[in-house]
Amino acid sequence: MERTFVMIKPDAVQRGLIGEIIHRFERRGLKIVAMKFMHVSEELAAKHYAAHKEKPFYRDLIDYITSGPVVAMVLEGTGAIATARTTMGATNPAQAAPGTIRADFSLEIGRNIVHGSDGEESAAAEIGLWFGDDIPGWERNTD
Length: 143
Ligand code: CMP
What we know:
Elements: E1 2-8, H1 10-14, H2 18-28, E2 31-38, H3 42-48, H4 58-65, E3 70-77, H5 80-88, H6 101-105, E4 114-116, H7 120-131
Antiparallel strand pairs: 1-3, 1-4, 2-3
The chain binds adenosine-3',5'-cyclic-monophosphate.
The site of adenosine-3',5'-cyclic-monophosphate has 8 residues, from loops.
EC number: 2.7.4.6
Catalytic activity: dZDP + ATP = dZTP + ADP; a 2'-deoxyribonucleoside 5'-diphosphate + ATP = a 2'-deoxyribonucleoside 5'-triphosphate + ADP; a ribonucleoside 5'-diphosphate + ATP = a ribonucleoside 5'-triphosphate + ADP
Cofactor: Mg(2+)
């Protein structure tokens, strides 16, 4: 079963949208297999957004993502990577289709309220970076 990494960004947390956003992924059929509420360190932010290091908006991106707590999660399901992305909508909320998370709750590309892995490689890398081996299974605890 495919897995993807999704992060609810600081402004969405501050606006009280955690439940609404999680609801939409769950309603779609994606299962949460790991989740944590956390502050993002400068170091983690730099690793997560390393691909954007040379972009003009890089500094703003790091400042934004470290500005308050986020919710990081791993979602699982058939075609989870693409399914999460279509549920979120286009990276630029101004171009996202109505009914998607980004279109319904945001307007600025730099404040697009949610992040999702963009492919198999980034999903594996991001899940490893944010959770390592710390993903519980569904097995019943027999202790
Ligand atoms: P995200 O999916 O978290 O991945 C990289 C982020 O960079 C992206 O969402 C946007 O929030 C941000 N981003 C991409 N392009 C721009 C831009 N032109 N200006 C500001 N932020 C951007």
